[in-house]
Design brief:
The complex is a heterodimer.
Chain A (H helix, E strand, L loop, with lengths): L2 H17 L1 H5 L11 H4 L4 H16 L6 H30 L7
Helix pairs in contact in A: 4-5
Chain B lengths: L11 H9 L3 H5 L3 H22 L10 H7 L4 H15 L6 E3 L10 E3 L5 H27 L22 H12 L1
Helix pairs in contact in B: 1-6, 3-6, 4-6
Classes of the chains: A mainly alpha, B mainly alpha.
Chain lengths: 103, 178
Amino acid sequence: MSLFAIISDAAASASDAAASVSPILAWKPFLQPAPNAQHWWWLLLIPMSIGVSLAYKAIRVENLNQLPRETLRMAAQIVFGMIGLALALYVLVILILPHLPAE
Amino acid sequence: MPTAKETTPLQPVAAIAGWVFPGLGHIVNGNIRRGIAAMAGVLLLFVTGVLVGGVDAIDRKEDGLWFIGQAACGPIAFAVDSANTAFLKSGSAAPMIPLPPSVLNPQPQASAFKGLAHANEFGTFLAFLAGLMNACVILDALVRAPRSDGAAGSAMRGRRADDASPTVSANTSAGGAA
């Protein structure tokens, strides 16, 4: 499976999740798990990176006026680091490992 | 005149307040902006976790090891665990579904709102991450000098002054003298 196919599948599953409106209408927030989380779980990387960055930088920056910029910078580092790890693992598992001898 | 090596006493009241509610330790110590920022970060993680996984994301009995980290968020973690018991495990929020019997439990049941798979995993993980970050915030509140943010927000007096650069330390000392 090519990288383009994986991205296409992800986009298609995201649009499927957006199209399935009825589970969202019946959803009881905070009481019931979010619907269709298996389709968009990877989006949780964004609030996770922002939350970790904001809490960490709040106690680390010397000048609080730099907090928004430092938070966004660290969040971007986390997100792009994760994307880089994903690409590296894709190359290793999908492209390199299948070409190695079985024994 | 304060120096870069000067230390301040530990702030146990601030640490306890930081456990009672995320960021409250800094606020009661006068570092209000820093406390609000830390509170926003920890609560963003915690609320996102409970929003994604529901109240079942925090379960003291079934996910005991995860709860050790989540408990660092303070009473809000215990409150969500109590809500899980009161609304989900009692069957008041959704009907109980019978599960296959086991040796230990011949008639197991679970709420129809019980979190499964990705929703439960990420909800539990985000709440756990909120607890870990709040533990860092609590430790910072314990060692940070009261009202150390200053007008410019850069006055790193006291114990944390070791982290500051010589330039910042010199400015701090000058500001303290002024």
